[in-house]
Design a protein that fits this description.
Layout (H helix, E strand, L loop, with lengths): L1 H16 L25 E7 L4 H7 L4 H4 L15 E7 L17 E7 L5 E6 L10 H9 L4 E5 L17 H25 L5 E7 L1 H12 L6 E5 L11 H11 L40
Parallel strand pairs: 4-5, 4-6, 6-7
Antiparallel strand pairs: 1-2, 2-3, 3-5
C-alpha cells in the first residue's frame, strides 16, 4: 500500500511539472529521453531506438526471443515503423528468478514510447510463467506500429518455481496484481514526462495468466483503465474452482503410464511386434470406396 501511495504522489508531481507547452516538445526522435524517470524503479536503462518492434529489437538486443518463443505463429506479420524510446529496469524485489540481462532480479519491466504517439497506453502482464518480453510479438509489435505506448511486467516472479515466492500459498499470484498496478501507475507518469500529458486512454491486454490479470484489474482498479482485452485468460479464485483445485485430483486419478518394448520389425512386417495396439479410434472407420473406374 505504501508503494502505491508513493507512486500516486510521484504521478501527481509529474502532472504538475508537465505544462501544456511541453506537449509540443515530443515530436523529435527520442526527445526528452534524459528527463524520463520511472517512479519507484530501483534500476532503469534508457535507449533511443530506430525500431521498437521486434523487427528492430531482436538485432539491437532490446528483447529476448526466448520469452515469446512458441506463443505466435511464425507467419504472424511483423509490423515496422515505430522509432522511439525504450526503458528497461526493475522495481525493488527480493526474488531472483528473472535472469534477463544478467540482472537475476524479479519485478523487471519494459516501457516503449514511440515518437509518433496516438495518445494511448497499453499495459500488459505476461502469460504462463514467462518474462517481460513475452508479449512482444503477439501484442507489442502491433500496438506500437499503431502509435500506442506499451509497458509490460514479469509479474514479480517467473519460471517453474514461481509459486515458491512468498510466505503463504497464493502469495506469488497476489504479487502479480501488485506489480501490474505498480507498472500502470509508473507508466502513466512516464508518458506524462515524455509527451506532456497523461494518456487519453489506457487499456490492458494479456494472454492466459496475463488475461486473468486483465479481468482482475478491470474489476478491482477500474479507475486505472478504460478497457481491456482478456485473451483466453485463466481464472484463479481463492476457494476454487481453479487449476490448483482441479488439476491435482485429475492427475491422481489418471492411470499410470505404461511402457511397451518393441522388437525390431520383420521385413516385410508380418505382425505388430509391439503386441496389441492400445490406440483408440476417435471416429468411424472410413468406408471402402464403391466407385468403379
Amino acid at each position: 500500500m505504501r508503494t502505491h501511495v508513493a507512486l500516486l504522489t510521484a504521478l501527481a508531481t509529474t502532472l504538475l511539472v508537465a505544462s501544456p507547452a511541453d506537449a509540443t516538445i515530443h515530436n523529435g526522435h527520442c526527445a526528452r529521453i534524459d528527463r524520463l524517470h520511472v517512479p519507484g524503479a530501483q534500476l532503469q536503462v534508457a535507449a533511443c531506438l530506430d525500431e521498437l518492434t521486434t523487427a528492430g529489437t531482436v538485432a539491437s538486443g532490446h528483447t529476448v526471443p526466448a520469452d515469446w518463443a512458441g506463443l505466435t505463429s511464425l507467419s504472424l506479420p511483423q509490423p515496422t515503423g515505430a522509432p522511439g524510446i525504450q526503458l528497461d529496469g526493475y522495481f525493488p524485489d527480493t526474488s531472483t528468478t528473472n535472469t534477463n540481462h544478467g540482472w537475476n532480479h524479479d519485478a523487471q519491466f519494459v516501457l516503449r514510447l514511440p515518437d509518433h504517439w496516438n495518445g494511448g497506453l497499453i499495459i500488459s502482464g505476461t502469460p504462463g510463467n514467462r518474462r517481460q518480453y513475452a508479449n512482444d510479438r503477439a501484442i507489442a509489435d502491433h500496438v506500437l506500429s499503431r502509435g500506442y505506448a506499451f509497458a509490460a511486467t514479469d509479474k514479480g516472479n517467473t519460471g517453474l518455481t514461481f509459486a515458491e515466492d512468498g510466505l503463504r500459498p497464493g502469495d506469488a499470484i497476489l504479487e502479480w496484481h501488485t506489480r501490474v498496478t505498480q507498472l500502470a501507475l509508473a507508466a502513466k507518469a512516464v508518458v506524462a514526462q515524455r509527451y506532456g500529458h497523461t494518456p487519453s486512454r489506457t487499456l490492458m491486454a494479456g494472454i492466459s495468466n496475463g488475461g486473468y490479470l486483465v479481468r482482475w484489474q478491470l474489476e478491482r482498479n477500474p479507475w486505472l483503465f478504460d478497457g481491456g482485452v482478456d485473451w483466453e485468460g485463466t481464472l484463479w479464485t481463492a476457494n476454487g474452482p481453479n487449476l490448483l483445485t482441479v488439476l491435482p485430483p485429475a492427475l491422481r486419478a489418471s492411470p499410470p503410464a505404461t511402457t511397451r518394448r518393441c522388437s525390431p520389425p520383420a521385413s516385410p512386417p508380418a505382425q505388430n511386434s509391439c503386441g496389441p495396439s492400445t490406440t483408440r479410434s476417435t471416429g468411424p472407420s472410413p468406408k471402402p470406396s464403391t466407385s468403379k473406374n
